[in-house]
Amino acid sequence: MSDTPSESPDFDAMARDIAEVPAVEVIVTVAVNLMSAAAVKLGLTEEGDEHRDLDEARKLVHALAGLLDATATEISSFHAAPLRDGLKSLQLAFREASLVPDEPGKGPGEKYTGPVYG
After folding, report:
1. What are 50-56's contacts with CB under 8 Å, separation 24+?
2. Which residues, in sequence order, are CB contacts of 45 under 8 Å at separation 6+?
3. Rg for the chain (alpha carbons), in Å?
4. pLDDT-based confidence at 118, cuts 50/70/90?
5. How many Cβ atoms are within 10 Å of 39's Cβ, its own excluded?
6. Could you report the per-residue pLDDT of 7-50, keeping only the tens digit for each?
7. Are the CB atoms for 46 and 91 separated by under 8 Å?
8. Nearest 5 degrees, angle CA 39-CA 80-CA 91?
9. 50-89 as b/e, with b when 16 or more CB fall inside 10 Å?
């Protein structure tokens, strides 16, 4: 064991690294992280219901829909199309998982996407 304190993070280097990443890549990464977290909260992973929390899933799906709506003109359809497909899949999974499904247009993110039907 060393008596020297652990080194603090090099925030300047981290800022330089972030500066080199294109905005589209940051947006897509955030969207994928939101999708992954929502899938876990919907119980769509191998662990299934162990981490299921529909209230948390609703927030994540809604945030994903807002992000995609806000950036629709900023990212190409090459990036946006699979993200929109993933969002719709999550919205449908949420509807299926809900004991009392939301009315069409009232589900998570439907404020931005419009009603989602199977």
Report:
1. 52/97, 54/94, 54/97, 54/98
2. 39, 51
3. 18
4. confident
5. 19
6. 778 888 877 788 899 999 999 999 999 999 999 999 999 888 88
7. no
8. 35
9. ebbebeebbbbbbbbbebbeebeeebeeebbeebbebbbb
Q: Which residue has the tokens 């900023």?
A: 74
In the block, residue with structure tokens 């948390």: 56
**Largest pairwise CA distance in the chain:** 61
**3-class secondary structure, 86:** helix
Tokens of 68: 């995609």
- CA separation (Å) from 72 to 66, 68, 112? 10, 6, 11
Helix (H, G, I), strand (E, B) or coil at 85: helix
